[in-house]
Design goal:
By secondary structure, the protein is mainly α. The chain contains 14 helices and two strands; from the N terminus they run H-H-H-H-H-H-H-H-E-E-H-H-H-H-H-H. The chain has a two-stranded parallel ribbon. It is extended, with a radius of gyration of 33 Å. The protein starts with 18 loop residues before the first helix and ends in a 6-residue tail after the last helix. The mean pLDDT is 88.
């Protein structure tokens, strides 16, 4: 809940209005580092936050930023006021004078409209807090520059207040981040690749026109750093070097024991093979049950695709040296049985509802197959079996396309199903 009190957080005084400076102030009103962006960023982060304490912190500071927006807006309005009536002053910025009537609007100092693209919101509390610390630092610098260009003492005082609060917020966000107790570079859940994370690539080399040379410092030398040649200049000998720390780790690591992945992939392919054979057997019945020609044609097309998919699965199993026999797929058996029930119930229904039920059953099958092919392809990628990946990708694409086509066929049927039945 928000409540507006008719009093500024900091009472402003402008003795010498300066329209050009008022235009500069708009950077902190509707700019990328301005108060509205900060207020929206922190408030929305707060709405997303499950931690009660840090949620309160974000909402407190987000609300304060709205008060800062009011201060900046008042300062800008007072500085821009001469543009309302004086031609020479209006010439400082015709957009403000003519389109905005000499008042503030959600534009930055260049006349660009405020946008939500300014906001940095990830839903990861530690990442968002780091963004907030950086935002406060940028805002502090903007206020510092505004103070340096300001000639009005009262305005300087207000800007000094606002600049100081940026540091207060930065401190609060920093302490909140530290109290999470997470290592400084622990971002997200997935750990970085060991070795690679400690490599510093020497990507800027040679001597510059002004005598610049490669330099070393604590950012690229000493523990835990390994200083390595840039990818562009790395030779074949370097790539094959025995010292792993001196070679750029630019490819997926080989599996220590790929046998269990291979066995799992073979098991998945045999399962999908049985699933596809069940679909191959069921599709003629679905073609016969379909009422609309477009759906019949779609099922007919997918039957041909299914036959090709079965051949690809057999090829893949042969490449892996696995048994080319299907493994009973209970999941697909249940979906096919459910489809049989839908077709039986559809006999008593009008054309559109019957076909919509049939499409629903077919979509369940497609999504089951999409999940199965996705899993198998990911396993093949881990094994670097590029030919099998290619075959599975073809089949996966056909299943995804079939699902989209079923959705398209369903749309006109939805409209037909809503139409009242004709009265004889």
């Amino acid at each position: 809940m928000y409540h507006h009190v008719k009093s500024l957080m900091y009472t402003v005084r402008v003795d010498e209005p300066d329209p050009s400076f008022g235009n500069m102030l708009l950077e902190q009103f509707g700019g990328a580092n301005g108060e509205l962006a900060a207020a929206m960023q922190y408030s929305i982060q707060g709405l997303n936050c499950d931690d009660p304490g840090r949620k309160d912190l974000l909402m407190d500071i987000g609300t304060e930023e709205m008060s800062h927006l009011e201060i900046v807006g008042t300062l800008a309005r007072l500085h821009l006021k001469p543009m309302k009536s004086i031609r020479e002053e209006a010439e400082a910025d015709p957009l403000i004078a003519i389109a905005g009537g000499g008042g503030v609007n959600l534009y930055n100092s260049m006349g660009n409209a405020w946008t939500a693209d300014y906001l940095k919101i990830t839903g990861e509390l530690d990442v968002d807090l780091r963004s907030n610390i950086a935002a406060e630092a940028r805002a502090k610098i903007v206020y510092e520059r505004l103070i340096n260009f300001c000639r009005d003492p009262g305005t300087k005082d207000a800007l000094q207040f606002l600049m100081t609060r940026e540091i207060t917020h930065m401190r609060a966000f920093t302490i909140a981040l530290e109290t999470l107790g997470r290592p400084a570079f622990s971002i997200g859940q997935i750990a970085p690749t060991p070795g690679l994370v400690d490599q510093f690539f020497n990507d800027s080399t040679g001597r510059g026109e002004h005598g610049e040379v490669d330099t070393r410092g604590p950012w690229n030398q000493g523990d835990p750093w390994r200083f390595v040649q840039s990818p562009a200049l790395q030779t074949e000998e370097t790539e094959q070097a025995e010292d792993a720390d001196e070679a750029i780790q630019a490819a997926s690591a080989d599996l220590d024991d790929p046998s269990f992945i291979r066995e799992l992939l073979i098991d998945q392919l045999r399962d999908i093979l049985h699933a596809e054979k069940q679909v191959q057997k069921a599709l003629p019945n679905m073609i016969e049950a379909a009422r609309f020609t477009q759906l019949q044609n779609l099922f007919t097309q997918h039957l041909a695709e299914t036959e090709e998919q079965i051949e690809r699965l057999n090829q893949s199993l042969k490449m892996l040296g696995g048994p080319a026999r299907a493994k009973p797929c209970k999941g697909m058996a249940g979906l096919v049985e459910e489809g049989d029930e839908v077709m039986e119930e559809g006999r008593e229904k009008d054309d559109a509802p019957a076909d919509l039920g049939l499409i629903g059953a077919a979509l369940r099958v497609e999504h089951y197959e999409i999940a199965a092919y996705t899993t198998a392809r990911n396993l093949a990628l881990q094994l670097k079996e590029s030919e099998i990946v290619k075959l599975l990708t073809l089949s996966l694409g056909e299943e995804q396309n079939a699902g989209q086509l079923l959705d398209q066929v369903a749309q006109p049927l939805m409209s037909a199903a809503r139409m009242p039945a004709s009265v004889e």
